[in-house]
Design brief:
Subcellular location (chain A): Cell membrane
CATH topology of one domain in chain B: MetI-like fold
Number of strands of chain A: 0
Strand content of chain A: under 5%
Shape of chain B: globular
InterPro entries (chain A): MetI-like, MetI-like_sf
Number of helices of chain A: 12
Structural class of chain A: mainly alpha
Helix content of chain B: over 70%
CATH superfamily of chain A: MetI-like
GO biological process, one term (chain A): transmembrane transport
Oligomer: heterodimer
Number of domains of chain A: 1
Distance between the termini of chain A: 27 Å
Order of helices and strands of chain A: HHHHHHHHHHHH
Radius of gyration of chain A: 24 Å
Distance between the termini of chain B: 39 Å
Protein name (chain A): Sugar ABC transporter permease
CATH architecture of one domain in chain B: Orthogonal Bundle
Shape of chain A: globular
Number of helices of chain B: 13
Order of helices and strands of chain B: HHHHHHHHHHHHH
Largest sheet of chain B: none
Membrane topology (chain A): Multi-pass membrane protein
């Protein structure tokens, strides 16, 4: 920190250390050391009110033998898997449709994009609360009263275990689609328009253009986005907390919500740390996949 | 030409359906917030309330506690975002202007840490804050917001700095300005729209944060709006749904409004970041 900044932008000989120091210190203090500390707590007998007294694998064994864990992991797998497909399909459809509309200079494209982005910035807790009102199972609930007009329903949106998971996915798709939309929109705009002009000269149909030009050239964006969306979904729990609280039973209790409940409601610090390590390892695995997919691209 | 016309019709049909899906929750929230308790029980029949009322907003906004929650949310979000940007500026500048070994590792590391769930970090951070006697202080939340917002801010600011011609800085250095002076007088003013994008994006994310203030702030009077509406929802019954709707709308509106007004700037910053990254 005492090194004086050199004079002038003589690029190659600059001393980067003092410039990088704040960022690196933050990364160490708020990311690296906490992760190590969680791993240490996972191998201890600490609770929220009592510090660790020594090394113990009891918490590890306790969590692994918890009958709730397989159920939670199964729910997490379904929640993440379905969301990753749904978010990206909807995001891709929107991105490509908007690009087409812009190409034809159709009005309303920017307004539509704004609407999708507006859902994205809704706080997760508010998202859960809004959808809880929409899924209200009383006869005057939004969706059930609409279905009533069509002579359908009522649907047990939140009280049926399987339907509750579907409802949680719907709420997440509503909020999360914008991210995939932005990524795919940027990637699609990055494709050389000459390719599409050539395809038009060859009188290629829209499906053929999609299969032969758009999809192959978006493959890298899709690969990277798959991992980003997987990790984001894995870490999502505030909207579920507000929507269902994890219920009915454990039907919508994903791993991150289970971890939250274990640490901050059951005050089981060691057990929660084991789950946090599990959450971290799953996220890390996916992140290494994104680095392997995206690391070849120089920034 | 007719083929393209059909395509246009299909485009609008598709976007129309999707627009319905994305608009209905907002529209229903507004509808509920404008209803009297009696009309809440009429469901979709009173999607447009027969007797619209602003009483629900009045009830929420005349509650002094609610104004405190809004102010807490604004204060914590803005301070945390400012901290994130300040922490990010030196690293972003170094990554934009210097060549050094390990630059790629720093940039990828900044991307990678964003994959870590704040929940994982918060378990030890809660204990440390407790040991440092920082629990229930705004400072603890602001520090965590700053740390969580910094990585994305470095990326956005690096892209913003990259766009500034280096010749402008060289001219300043010939005049004898040091690097810090050049940064402060030339680069930062020219990068102000990038800095503003990074700040606003971080602020909107902080506004949405629930976990961090929920855990680090235990006193009701310290809570930001995101924690307060969760708590409020727990005390609500069917007969007060319209109040919850009004509270949610007030909590959502600032973030959505800022984002919609500034989306051209923010989205182009995100897209240029996505393309280069």
């Amino acid at each position: 920190m005492t090194a004086r900044p050199d004079r002038g932008p003589g690029a190659g000989f600059a001393q980067p250390v003092p410039w990088l120091a704040p960022a690196v210190l933050v990364l160490a203090a708020f990311y690296a050391v906490p992760v190590l500390d969680v791993a240490r707590l996972a191998l201890s007998d600490a609770t929220m009110v009592r510090p660790a007294s020594g090394f113990s694998t009891e918490a590890l064994r306790g969590v692994l033998s918890d009958p709730a864990l397989p159920e939670v992991l199964g729910t997490t797998l379904i929640f993440v898997g379905v969301n990753v497909v749904a978010l990206q399909v909807v995001g891709l459809v929107i991105a490509l449709t908007i690009v087409r509309g812009e190409g034809r200079e159709l009005p309303g494209m920017a307004a539509f994009r704004t609407l999708v982005l507006a859902a994205w910035v809704v706080p997760g807790i508010a998202n859960g609360l809004i959808w809880r009102m929409l899924f209200d199972e009383a006869p005057y609930g939004t969706l059930n009263s609409l279905l009533g007009y069509a002579g359908l329903g009522p649907v047990a949106w939140l009280s049926d275990p399987q339907m509750a998971l579907v409802s949680a996915v719907i709420a997440n798709v509503w909020q999360g689609t914008a991210f995939s939309m932005i990524v795919f929109y940027a990637a699609r705009r990055g494709i050389d328009p000459v390719l599409y002009e050539v395809a038009a000269l060859d009188a290629a149909g829209p499906w053929r253009v999609f299969r032969s030009i758009t999809l192959p050239l978006l493959r890298r964006a899709i690969a990277v986005n798959t991992v980003l969306v997987s990790v984001q979904t894995l870490n999502t729990f505030d909207s579920i907390l507000a929507l269902t609280g994890g219920g009915p039973g454990r039907a919508t209790e994903v791993l991150s919500l289970f971890t939250f409940n274990t640490v901050f409601y059951n005050l089981d610090l060691a057990g929660g740390s084991v789950l946090a390590v599990l959450l971290f390892v799953l996220g890390l695995g996916m992140t290494l996949a994104v680095l392997a997919a995206g690391g070849r691209n120089p920034s | 030409m007719t083929g393209a016309r059909w395509g246009d019709a299909a485009t609008y049909a598709l976007l129309g359906m999707l627009a319905l899906f994305f608009a209905v929750p907002f529209a229903w929230l507004l509808s509920l917030a404008l209803r009297t308790p009696a009309e809440v029980y009429r469901g979709a029949a009173r999607f447009i309330p027969a007797e619209p009322t602003l009483a629900n907003f009045g009830a929420i906004l005349s509650d002094p506690a609610f104004l405190v929650y809004l102010w807490n949310g604004l204060k914590l979000s803005a301070s945390g975002a400012a901290l994130a940007v300040v922490l990010a500026i030196p690293a972003a500048y170094a990554c934009s202007r210097f060549d050094f070994r390990g630059k790629m590792a720093v940039l990828l590391g900044l991307l990678a840490v964003q994959m870590i769930s704040p929940l994982v970090l918060l378990v030890p951070l809660y204990r440390w804050m407790s040991a440092l006697d920082l629990l229930n202080r705004d400072l603890s939340v602001i520090a965590v917001y700053g740390a969580l917002g910094m990585p994305l801010a470095v990326w956005l600011l690096k892209v913003a700095f990259d766009a500034i011609p280096i010749e402008l800085e060289e001219a300043a250095s010939i005049d004898g300005a040091s690097r810090v002076q050049t940064l402060a007088r030339i680069t930062l003013p020219l990068a102000r729209s990038g800095i503003a994008s990074a700040f606003i994006l971080a602020m909107v994310m902080n506004w949405s944060q629930f976990l961090i203030p929920f855990i680090l702030l235990e006193r009701d009077a310290d809570w930001p709006i995101s924690v307060a509406i969760f708590n409020f929802a727990g005390s609500i019954s069917a007969s007060t749904t319209q109040l919850l709707a009004a509270a949610c709308l007030i909590a959502v509106l600032p973030a959505v409004a800022v984002f919609v007004l500034l989306q051209r700037m923010i989205v182009s910053a995100l897209i240029s970041g996505a393309v280069k990254g």
